[in-house]
Structure formats: structure tokens, C-alpha cells
Amino acid sequence: MGVQIFLVFHVMVAICLIALVLVQQGKGAAMGAALGGGASATVFGSRGSRGFLYKLTGAFALAFFATSMTLTYLAAQSVKNARDDSDTLALSATVQPSDVPQAPIKPTL
Q1: How far is CA 72 from the centre of its chain?
Q2: Res 95: pLDDT
Q3: Which of 9, 24, 56, 94: CA 20 to 30 A from 49?
Q4: How confident is the model at residue 71 (pLDDT cuts 50, 70, 90)?
Q5: Is the pLDDT of residue 98 over 70?
Q6: Is a pLDDT exceeding 70 seen at residue 51?
Q7: Can you tell me the distance from the alpha carbon of 31 to that of 37, in angstroms, rounded to the nearest whole number?
Q8: With contact defined as beta carbons under 8 Å apart, do 6 and 67 qualify?
């Protein structure tokens, strides 16, 4: 159950991270505003949304990294538990020679 929750959270963080990166303007976008081609006044202040979006992107990148590491750890534990279970099953399934009933030998003519 815990793995599915982390996986859903991981996918949501990845989608938000992709959206944040696509929303941000590149370094060359300031040139268009300087020539009068854009709206220089923004909701986020005179610096624009650059500081806010960079911090938010960093937070989502950190969350993405943390969920990736957590999912890796959980997957490794799952594989280890499966391997231990199969080894236990293989050991319990081995037949000891004393457990095999001896069939009587029929003489041949």
C-alpha cells in the first residue's frame, strides 16, 4: 500500500515539475520585454516570477529526488524479501533421502 502512495505522489511531483519548467521563461525572453514586446509589470513584483518560480522548482526537484530515493529503497526491499521467501521455499521443498520410501526390489527371471 505504501509503495502505491509514494508512486502516485512521485508522478504528481513529476508532472508539476515539468509544468513549472515549461512555464518559466528562458534567459533570452528578457530581450523581448526590453524592446517593448512584453508586459514588464507582473503580479509577482518588479523582478517578475523568476525568484518565486525558481524556488518552487527547486522544492519540487527536491521532492522528486526524495521520492525517487524512497521508491528505490522500497523496490530493493521488495526484491530482497521475495528472494528470501523463494530461498526458504526451496529449502523446505528439498527431499531428504530418509523421507523417500524404499520400494521392494522385484527379482527378474
Answers
A1: 7
A2: 54
A3: 9
A4: very high
A5: no
A6: yes
A7: 9
A8: yes
- Rounded CA gap, 4 and 18, in Å? 21
3-state SS, the chain, equals CHHHHHHHHHHHHHHHHHHHHHHCCCCCHHHHHHCCCCCCCECCECCCCHHHHHHHHHHHHHHHHHHHHHHHHHHHHHHHHHHHHHHHHHHHHCCCHHHCCCCCCCCCC
Residue recorded with cell 528472494: 83
pLDDT at 105: 73
Count of residues for the chain?
Answer: 109
d(CA 10, CA 31): 36
pLDDT given at position 1: 72
The residue written with cell numbers 526590453 in the block is: 34
Q: Which three cell numbers stand for residue 50?
A: 523568476
Are 17 and 64 in contact, with CB atoms under 8 Å apart?
yes
